[in-house]
Structures are given as structure tokens and as C-alpha cells.
């Protein structure tokens, strides 16, 4: 027992040492140890005062000047820009969903025999391996970075993401209805249409809502490179060093994304009642927002 305990401790120490070396190498490769970013630290501190402009309420209580945020939201028409962002995400999801369903079905071994099913799985894997941002750049020859190319990019990305989820979901469908329809002499198209797809309706809607969440965040990210919506406004304010307006836009983005996520989660919880569906509180949605935005951009 002592020997096993010693081996376990040495293994844990070696693992921690390996992680430390990997962290040091990663920071060094990222240029973290250079002094350049330290030189700009005073400027960052000054910018924080613009991100969160102070104001005395009732001449006693110091807090952020929320009025300046609200004033910019009205002047910049952020509601309309949010509508463009939401429209891009919705259109991309709806356009990609039918092909995702088709590829998801054809990628299942119950429908397409091995190894042909891996042809469709491979296509979905290739699509998923390319971020939505890169798909937007691929569609640039169609007319530059516009809401149209952003919609096509999200539609393409939806095929890979939603299709792969549906392929895995098809592995879990009940064999009873399928065998019952097969026993009547039905062909494969009838088995798929009446034995498999009806069992996929709820999971399809639930996963489509989940993909819509990601697409809203991706639509914001695509807007940053000029594809329209709130991302464009955010980029303009950042480039002109209007940090107060930039923070107002970020807060509006957070509100839009969290609203969509809450609607999506409640819908999925209703459709998949009894399943272990992730339920996040408003606090978790807000705190985890930066990570989800990063995942949507670079997934």
C-alpha cells in the first residue's frame, strides 16, 4: 500500500510538473513574458473609467452612469442592429436544418450501410472542423462580408453541427416502432418516414434550438468582421476609441444572447421533459458569456 501510495504521489507530481511546463511554454509562445503589454497598463486603467463612466446619484452614491449607455443605445439604433443579428442567426439555422436532418439520417448505419454512412459523417466532420468565421471568408466572392454571406456561413455550419448531433440521436431511437413497420413489409423509405423520423421530432427541435443559441453568438462574431448587426457597431466604437459606447453595445449583446439562451433552454426543457437537460441560472448565463462567445467564434 505504501508503494502504491508513493507511485500515485509521484505520478501526480509528474503530471503537475508537466502541466506547469506546458503552461510556461504556452505563455512564452504567446509572448506573455514581453514587457510591451505591461507598458500599456496605465492606458487600460484609463480606459476602464470610460468603459464604466462614474456618476454620483443623489450626490452621495457613486455608480456607473447608466444614462450614457441608454442614450447611445437609442442614438445608435441598437434594437434594429440586434434584429439584423437575430435574423442572420435564425435564417442560417432554418436554412441549414433540413440538410442537417438529411445528412444526420444518411450518416446513421441503420439507414446507410457501412462504410457509405461514413461518407456523410465525413462531410459533416469537415464542415464542423471549419469555423463559421472561415466559412464567411470562403463565401466572400459572392459579394464580400455581408449579412448574406454571414447567413450562408451559419447555414453551412448548422449542417455540420446539427447533423452530427442528429446522427448520434438516431442511435438512441426505439427499435419497437421500426420493427413493427418493417414487419408489415414496408420498404426502407417508409421505415425512415414512419418509424424513425417521428421519434426524432422532439430531439430535432431541441437540438435546433441549441444550435440557434450558438448561431446568435456566431452572428455577433461575424458582425465584428463587417457582416452586419451588433458586431459592426461594436467594431466601429472600438476603432474610434469610444469605450463607453463600446461597453453599451456589449451590454446589449449580452442581453440579446442571454434572452435567446433562456428561451431556448426553456423550450428544450419542455420538449425533453424527464431528460437531464442543462439548466443554467441567469448568473451562470452572464458569467459564462465570454467563454461561450469565444467557443462560437473558434469552434
Offer a few descriptive terms.
2 strands, 299 residues, Phosphate/phosphonate ABC transporter permease, 77% helix, mainly alpha, MetI-like fold, two-stranded antiparallel sheet, ABC-type phosphonate transporter activity
Q: How are the elements arranged and paired?
A:
Layout: H1 2-29, H2 36-39, H3 41-51, E1 54-57, E2 61-64, H4 66-75, H5 78-106, H6 117-129, H7 132-138, H8 147-170, H9 175-183, H10 188-227, H11 230-239, H12 243-271, H13 282-287, H14 289-298
Antiparallel strand pairs: 1-2
Helix pairs in contact: 3-12, 4-12, 5-8, 5-10, 6-8, 7-8, 8-10, 9-10, 10-11, 10-12, 10-14, 11-12
Question: Explain this structure to me?
Answer:
The protein is mainly alpha-helical. It has a domain at 78-282: MetI-like fold. Helix content is 77%, strand content 3%. It is globular and about 80 Å long. The chain starts with a helix and ends with a helix. The mean pLDDT is 85.
| Mean pLDDT rating | 85
CATH homologous superfamily placement of the domain at 78-282: MetI-like
Strand content: under 5%
Helix/strand/pairing class, anyone?
Answer: mainly alpha
DSSP helix count?
14
The oligomeric status of these chains comes to single chain
Order of helices and strands: HHHEEHHHHHHHHHHH
Measured between the Cα atoms of the first and last residue, the distance is: 45 Å
Molecular shape? globular
Spatial arrangement of strands, main beta sheet: 1-2
If you consult CATH, what is the topology of the domain at 78-282? MetI-like fold
- Radius of gyration, rounded? 24 Å
Instruction: Indicate the low-confidence ranges by residue numbers.
Output: none
CATH architect. name of the domain at 78-282: Orthogonal Bundle
Pfam families: BPD_transp_1
GO cellular component, one term: plasma membrane
Domain ABC transmembrane type-1: 82-264
InterPro entries: MetI-like (IPR000515), MetI-like_sf (IPR035906), PhnE/PtxC (IPR005769)
Amino acid at each position: 500500500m505504501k508503494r502504491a501510495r508513493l507511485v500515485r504521489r509521484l505520478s501526480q507530481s509528474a503530471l503537475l510538473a508537466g502541466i506547469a511546463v506546458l503552461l510556461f511554454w504556452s505563455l512564452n509562445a504567446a509572448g506573455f513574458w514581453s514587457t510591451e503589454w505591461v507598458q500599456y497598463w496605465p492606458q487600460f486603467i484609463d480606459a476602464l473609467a470610460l468603459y464604466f463612466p462614474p456618476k454620483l446619484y443623489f450626490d452621495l452614491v457613486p455608480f456607473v452612469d447608466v444614462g450614457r449607455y441608454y442614450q447611445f443605445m437609442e442614438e445608435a439604433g441598437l434594437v434594429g442592429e440586434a434584429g439584423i443579428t437575430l435574423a442572420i442567426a435564425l435564417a442560417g439555422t432554418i436554412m441549414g436544418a433540413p440538410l442537417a436532418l438529411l445528412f444526420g439520417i444518411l450518416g446513421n448505419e441503420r439507414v446507410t450501410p457501412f462504410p457509405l454512412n461514413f461518407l456523410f459523417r465525413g462531410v459533416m466532420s469537415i464542415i464542423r472542423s471549419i469555423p463559421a468565421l472561415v466559412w464567411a471568408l470562403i463565401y466572400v466572392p459572392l459579394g464580400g462580408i455581408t449579412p448574406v454571406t454571414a447567413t450562408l456561413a451559419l447555414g453551412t455550419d448548422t449542417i455540420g453541427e446539427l447533423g452530427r448531433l442528429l446522427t448520434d440521436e438516431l442511435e438512441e431511437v426505439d427499435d419497437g416502432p421500426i420493427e413493427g413497420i418493417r414487419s408489415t413489409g414496408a420498404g426502407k423509405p417508409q421505415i425512415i418516414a414512419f418509424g424513425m423520423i417521428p421519434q426524432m421530432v422532439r430531439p430535432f427541435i431541441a437540438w435546433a434550438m441549441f444550435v440557434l443559441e450558438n448561431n446568435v453568438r456566431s452572428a455577433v462574431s461575424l458582425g465584428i468582421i463587417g457582416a452586419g448587426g451588433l458586431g459592426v457597431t461594436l467594431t466601429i466604437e472600438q476603432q474610434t476609441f469610444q469605450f463607453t459606447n463600446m461597453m453599451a453595445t456589449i451590454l446589449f449583446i449580452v442581453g440579446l444572447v442571454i434572452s435567446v439562451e433562456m428561451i431556448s433552454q426553456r423550450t428544450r426543457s419542455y420538449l425533453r421533459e424527464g431528460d437531464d437537460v442543462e439548466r443554467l441560472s441567469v448568473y451562470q448565463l452572464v458569467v459564462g458569456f465570454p467563454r461561450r462567445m469565444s467557443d462560437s467564434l473558434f469552434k
